[in-house]
User: What shape does this take?
Amino acid sequence: MSLTVTQAKGYSIVKVEANKLGGVLSPELKDKFVELNQLGVKSMILDLGNAQYCDSSGLSAILVGNRLCKDAGGAFVICEINDMINKLIQISQLDSILTIIPTQQEAMDFLIMDNIEKGLDNE
Assistant: This one.
């Protein structure tokens, strides 16, 4: 499988296991975001530590996840991205829309604090 999902209290971590987030994987990633959202997951971390490349369909999938979480009152965080993907996000001017945090641990800490601030920590 190209994606793994880990459930935590108040959020889910979606890890891309492939080295390319593009045309083949993007629909699977979008479907996973929708599925988690329908299950009541409000906040998600997208771990791109294994992804070396991302194209426009990958960015589209990322934006779907971001929108679903924001609409649910949660947060969407991207972590472990490489310089190439970070540059693509900056060129696309999405760095002001997306929350990017360096490591998965820092992303988990961010979501825990975000959930406490929003009063979601008891859900």
Summary: The first strand starts at residue 3 and ends at 8.
